[in-house]
TrEMBL record, chains A, B:
Annotated protein name in UniProt: HTH-type transcriptional repressor KstR
Coiled coil: none
Residues in the signal sequence: none
Organism: Streptomyces lavendulae subsp. lavendulae
Gene Ontology MF term list: DNA-binding transcription factor activity; transcription cis-regulatory region binding
Keywords in alphabetical order: DNA-binding, Repressor, Transcription, Transcription regulation
Domain of life: Bacteria
Length: 198, 198
DNA sequence: ACAGTTCCGATGCGCTCGTATCGGAACGTG
DNA sequence: CACGTTCCGATACGAGCGCATCGGAACTGT
């Protein structure tokens, strides 16, 4: 067996470059040449890792989805003593990518979501990510609201979907400058408070 | 004065073509040639209406924003006798573009939102549309919740922002296939019900 | 009818894109 | 130390892009 290369690792490096460029110029500003340059490899190397550009984009989407998902999961288990409600608030904030240092990820994610509306391959990857998030959220909502003294019954799945959609919508509105991150956080907090005080 | 052409009208026709193509192949699938062909005019005519492609896209965004906005406004005044709460529900459904026949508009809108995250020109137009919607919604929320018997005070502006973000998030989730239109409508209805029964 | 102005369809240019190709560098193996 | 395999950098290619150009069609006012 002659010269071998860690393909998995290179794919990750390339995916990072894709995300950086998508953050700066949008998804359509991502070209193979620029990606290769940013990743400090040759175009040939990129082509060896991914047969086509679409394959590269799909991998990059999965990569960033994995990163966000694992950060959310980390938030959920960091402090086992916290209430489910608190955990849910943290996780939702994480999903909404409101913190300044995650603005880039938010832009990339939004670009992928828009593209997924017309690309079956991207849509599949995205749906998997969202399904996993919805599951996590639904579990947390159920746990946080299992108080038998509640006057109004709540559908955990529906509340999870609400939270997820709200987080995504807030992310978009922050990105285009309609809301400040602070205002978005305020909206999110108010929604959660209302959810847990009914 | 020699031969004259209704430029405003042609711009509208071209904008329609832009939206149709953006719906089918995403915003980056929109080329001047395809737009001209779809609008049944020559490329030269398109170039006469819009100096650059970006100018064309900005106009198209404004055009579709105007269409959606006026539809929302129509919903708000159609039946003056309806309660503010009902009007708000209708308007929110309209903004979320959940009805099948508006799916195309939703895809176009999402494409523009994503692009606006990296394009100042588009972001400006979008912000104006959202600001107007938020204003309308905030007014309706205030009207619907002016019941002095309410136990918990509500910030109309914040609720308007919540509603707007939720609607946008739901739109995106429907487009990528994570939610069915029915499920999205269900989420929206539940949110409004909770808002008006607290 | 003619002159003057506006408009636009056709065409070309320069560029960038994604992809295909291939010769040689790199390296484990016998 | 060659040999064989794997890898990749450089380059070529055809397609498609946005944009510029321009000659003549179309139409108005005289």
């Amino acid at each position: 067996m002659p010269r071998q290369v860690d393909h998995a690792d290179r794919r990750r490096i390339v995916a990072e470059a894709v995300c950086e460029l998508a953050d700066e110029h949008g998804l359509e500003g991502v070209t193979l040449r620029d990606v290769a340059a940013r990743a400090q490899v040759s175009m040939g190397a990129v082509q060896r890792c991914f047969r086509t550009k679409e394959e590269m984009l799909v991998f990059a989407l999965g990569h960033i989805g994995e990163r966000i998902g694992s950060r959310v999961r980390a938030r959920l288990v960091r402090s086992p003593a916290q209430s489910a409600a608190t955990a849910l608030g943290h996780a939702a904030t994480e999903v909404a990518l409101l913190r300044e240092e995650h603005r880039a990820e938010a832009r990339v994610w939004l670009a992928f979501v828009a593209q997924a509306a017309v690309s079956e391959a991207l849509a599949g990857t995205l749906k998997a990510s969202y399904a996993a998030l919805e599951e996590s959220f639904a579990g947390l909502v159920a746990e946080a609201l299992e108080d038998p003294a509640r006057t109004v019954p709540v559908d955990p799945r529906r509340e999870a979907r609400t939270l997820l959609a709200l987080a995504d919508g807030l992310t978009a509105h922050v990105l285009i400058g309609h809301l400040t991150p602070r205002a978005a956080q305020d909206v999110l907090d108010a929604h959660l408070t209302a959810l847990f005080t009914d």
